[in-house]
Structure formats: C-alpha cells, structure tokens
Amino acid sequence: MAEHATSEPLKDKPPAYDTLSDRGSLDEEKCTPHKTIPASLRKFVYPPSNRRTSIFSFFPRRSSLQNAELKMAVIDILKDLAKRREIDDNAWSVLDHCADACRMNAGSFRSILQERILGDHTFIYWAVLKQSRTEEVQGSSNSEKSAECDLVVRLLELAAPLTDQIRAEFGLACLQTADQVHFEYVRGSPVLSPLSGTEEILLGSAAPPDQLDVEDDLADEHRFVVCFRVPMFAKRMWVVRRIELQFIARGRLWALIFWNPTEAECKSPSSRWTFIPDQWQATVLLVHPSPPTALDSRLTVLPAANSVPASSGTPRENTCHTTTGERAKKPLCWPLQTKHMAPSGVFSAPVLACFSHLQMNKSSYFAPDGTLNGRWQAVLAPPGTRCLCGSAHAT
Questions:
Q1: 94 and 139: one domain?
Q2: Which of 46, 47, 106, 121 has a Cα-to-Cα distance from 181 of 20 to 30 A?
C-alpha cells in the first residue's frame, strides 16, 4: 500500500508576473545611466527592447538615413561642446558615449573627429583652444593641467591613427595660444609620438622622456633660449639615427633634429638635404604653419661635469648655465644661421651643423647614463645684426 507524503505549505510564494515585470523595468531604469547620455544618442546606445527576437536580429541592417542621423547627432553634440565657454569634466563621458554609439551602429567616430565641423576647424582644434583659454582665465594646478591635457590625449586616441590634418590642427591650436607646456605634455604621449619598433626595444616602456625648457627673453621679443635634456643620446643616434625635439617659441613651431644619416639616405635623389654618412648633424627646421623669419642662433652642448642632474632639485633655469672649474671642459658650440627661413610643405629648408666633434668626444660630454644636456639660443633677426648675449665662443 503506497504511502502518501504530506506536503507542507510553501512559505515563500513566487511573486506575481506583473510584479516581476515592473521590478525589472525599475532595475533597468536605475542601472541605466540615461542622465549622462545626450538625448539624441539614447536610441542609438539603447535601442527599443520590445522588438521581436529572430535570427535576423543578429545581423543589424541600418539604412543610410539612420547612419546619417547618427552622424549629425554626434556632430551636433561636438558643436555644442565646442561652443561652450569651457570644456569641463562632463566632456569625458559625452565623448565616450559618442564613440560607443558609433561603434554599436557601424559608424566611425574617428572620421567625425577629422571633419571640420565648426569654423573650418576640427573639434580637436577647439578643444585645445578652450582648454588653454580656461587655464588663462581661471588658472589651474599641475594636476588640473594634466587632467585637461589628458582630455586632449583621449581625443587624439579616439582619432588614431592620426592624419597629417589632425596633427596640423593640434599644432596650430597650440601655436595660436603659445601653449608650450600643453604642447610638450601631449606630444609626449604615444598616440602623438609613437615609438618605432627599434625605439621601443632600445628605450623600453619606462624610458625617461626628453625634457625641454623654453624661456622667452622678457626684454627682447625676438630672443629666446631652449634648454634640452636627451636621455640615451649616443645609443639613439647610433641605433635609431634620428632624435626630434619639437617646441613652440615666439609664435612659431620649431623642430631641432639630430641626424645620423645612412649611406642610402645620402645618395637618395629625392633628398633635399646634404648629408655625410655616419656623421652626426644637427638641424633646425621651421614647421608649418609657422610664419617665415630670419634666424641667428647657436647650438651649445654642455660637458657632463657641467650639466645639472634632473633629480638635484635645482631650478630649471639653471640648466641653461654651466659651472666653472679648473678641469671643466668648454661647451661645444655651432652656429645655425639663415637670412630667410619659411616652411615648405611640412618643414622648412634645414639649417645644418656638423656634430662630428661631439661624436669623437662623446665620453666627456655624456652623463654616465648617456644623457646629453644642451641649449639653443636664438634671435629672430638676420645673422650678425644682433648679439647672442651669453653665448660661448664657437669651437
């Protein structure tokens, strides 16, 4: 005879269906950050959930009209950000949502960032201008400065790989605001100055960056000096064969380049420059869109014993001077002069100086870690018409 098991009444009854559906909608609304997403993007980031699920739903098909609508929505958002008095921290999430919407709907946020959307300029141009303007009006600490520069770095990452137009727009904005600090910070990022395969192997990920200190002469609007500190200089010259330092001074974008040309480069018929194989040379170039100018300048390399280490806590301006001593070697100096310098294409015609003397005496002019310290003094005037005060005698 079968025994019937007695079942106890259920203590926890399952909730009603209506309750489940309501709770799910409430949780969805609570977890979905609609407030941070521009209204024009919500339907692209969060499509309607009441669509019927079928096998064809895994193959999204968007019409050209929908793609154009998404593009215009993103452009309108970027225009709104650019027209604001300042670009605040909210821009971070807005830009990420724009990138997400484009990615989820087969759009290209990179191509939108490269378009001239306002005043014949890209959004990156206006972002740099607004960052600099905010700092001038309000002032900012170093941490705030880094955060604002990081926003531009994030924009460049979203626009990568960068075209020549984007690079020119970034340089033009920094040039128009004379923002050397901003330019140097962002230029040190991998997205704007990526390392080649050889450089990455030689320098590694923890290599110290090149340091630049641009000082304008307050008494003379045509005069300036640039102090530079280049780690692992000799190894980079022999292996990579090129070191480029770009900076902004006196309303112009400059490039100080150290070369170690190969024999193939010297024999190349397309080369506009005269090189000697395996002989170090220094080159000063004016970068587009800088205005033309005359140039009288002198490049100086400081002996290792006279250079000031970065960790000594000495003020940065002291790196532009040498100490005195009986055994201190003389600085090596080279004149870099031209009556007329103007950009042609991207770069101007070069002003060259042979670096072979440094090449032969590298042991006494390099720090133990291979760092090279030097300065470039310049006057925007025809050669011989102005005095390069404080410069050493040429050797």
A1: yes
A2: 121
Contact 249, 214 (CB under 8 A): yes
Asked if 366 contacts 305 with a C-beta cutoff of 8 angstroms, the reply is no
Q: Looking at this protein, which amino acid is placed at residue 64? A: S
Residue type, 257: I
In a domain, 272, yes or no: yes
Average pLDDT of every residue of the chain:
73
44 and 103 together in one domain: yes
Q: What is residue 1's DSSP assignment?
A: -
ω into 190 cis (within 30 of 0): no
Same domain, 359 and 223: yes
Confidence of residue 67 (pLDDT cuts 50, 70, 90): confident
Integer Cα distance of 113 and 117 in angstroms: 8
Positive or negative CA dihedral for 275, 261, 360, 306? positive
- Residue 229 lies inside a defined structural domain of this protein: yes
Structure tokens at 224: 């300036």
C-beta of residue 69 within 8 angstroms of C-beta of residue 107? no
* Prediction pTM value: 0.71
CB 233 within 8 A of CB 243: yes
Same domain flag for 175 and 113:
yes
Q: What is the residue type of 100?
A: D
Mean pLDDT of 67-74: 89
